[in-house]
Design a protein that fits this description.
The chain is α/β, with parallel strands linked by helices and 322 residues long. It has one domain: Alpha-Beta Complex (Spore Coat Polysaccharide Biosynthesis Protein SpsA, Chain A), CATH 3.90.550. It contains ten helices and 15 strands. The strands form four sheets. A seven-stranded mixed beta sheet has the order 5-4-3-6-11-8-12, with helices on both faces. A four-stranded mixed beta sheet has the order 7-13-9-10. A hairpin with a 5-residue loop joins strand 9 and strand 10. The longest helix has 17 residues. It is globular.
């Protein structure tokens, strides 16, 4: 069992009170051999404001078969000291010159061995016991290759402030431009899928390479939504993907268009036509609004056979249900 050091509970800089507590890594009733090994990577650059809370949201869960790797991408603030404080509880930590988020994540994943994989950005949080949720889903459902939980938003103080409905994910709709925002903090996958999809993240873009990874995953497996909370996206001024949503959307459209251009068959032709219409109407304000209501929103909400079933917890554990 890991030692139980006394640590200072993270609190915002403005909070005058510091609380003492014991890190507890025990999972009552759980044996390490019964849980799949989960690799989780956090890459950070100058993340002193939120990194400690992020790390605690992972370690304090007490998941018994966790490989947690933290990569410092050349920080110049107190980030290295924060990482050193948690070093006894990490599987590994690395420091490299500033190469960007996705290059840092690739470093972490290259040193990983877990059967289940995911990453958590340095300001975001895992929800309570969510690693047990992830581990038990993949243990119960061997045919499910990647999952994402209910999207949740967290404010700068760390409070969950919004829980969104369970989304439905279809490759065709995703590439058409709907259901675009898969919440990365809530998404985990099997190593076998990662390897089939190339075994690394692209480093072409500043913030959109998670979208590019999802495009590759969709070539090989359905994305199953889970009726559960897994991770939360923290809303704050320095958030990478939300710092320029116009650029993010344009680059995602570029990635999707490249994927569709290489597809074959009648479905691919329909996708190319849909994306061409979308590209033509976007510059025209009145048409853009009408197109969004009639086409894009329908793709988001209209049930059809291309929606995969949802993973829900039932009397006998996790089940895939329509």
């Amino acid at each position: 069992m890991l030692p139980q050091p006394t640590s200072t509970l993270y609190s915002p800089k403005s909070a005058p009170l510091q609380l003492e507590f014991q890190l507890d890594f025990r999972a009552p009733g759980a044996q390490p051999a019964s849980w799949p090994k989960i690799t989780l990577v956090t890459a950070v650059y100058n993340g002193e404001d939120y990194l400690e809370a992020t790390i605690r949201s992972v370690l304090n869960q007490g998941y018994p078969n966790l490989e947690y790797i933290v990569i410092d991408d050349g920080s110049t603030d107190s980030t290295p000291e924060i990482i050193r404080g948690f070093a006894p509880f990490l599987a590994a930590s690395f420091r490299q010159t500033n190469q960007g988020l996705f290059a840092a994540l690739n470093t972490g994943f290259a040193h990983s061995t877990g059967e289940i994989m995911g990453w958590l950005n340095s300001s975001d949080l895992l929800q309570s016991n969510s690693l047990f949720t992830v581990g038990s889903i993949f243990g119960d459902l061997p045919n499910v290759e990647w999952i994402t939980g209910r999207p949740t938003k967290i404010n700068a103080a760390g409070m969950t402030i919004e829980v969104l409905p369970v989304p439905h994910w279809s490759r065709a709709r995703f590439l058409a431009g709907a259901n675009k925002y898969i919440q990365q903090e809530s998404t985990f996958w099997r190593r076998s899928l990662w390897q089939r999809a190339g075994g690394r993240l692209s480093t072409e873009f500043r913030a959109e390479d998670d979208f590019e990874l999802w495009v590759r995953f969709f070539r090989y497996a359905q994305l199953h939504s889970v009726e559960a909370l897994i991770g939360g996206y923290r809303l704050h001024e320095g958030a990478l993907s939300s710092s320029d949503m116009g650029r993010y959307d344009r680059n995602c459209d570029l990635i999707a268009s490249r994927e569709v251009a290489g597809m074959k068959g009648a479905g691919a032709a329909a996708l190319r036509l849909f994306r061409r219409i979308d590209r033509l109407v976007k510059p025209i304000p009145k048409l853009r609004g009408l197109w969004h209501r009639l086409a894009i929103e329908s793709l988001y909400r209209m049930p059809a056979g291309d929606w995969p079933p949802v993973v829900r917890y039932g009397p006998h554990g996790w089940e895939v249900r329509q």
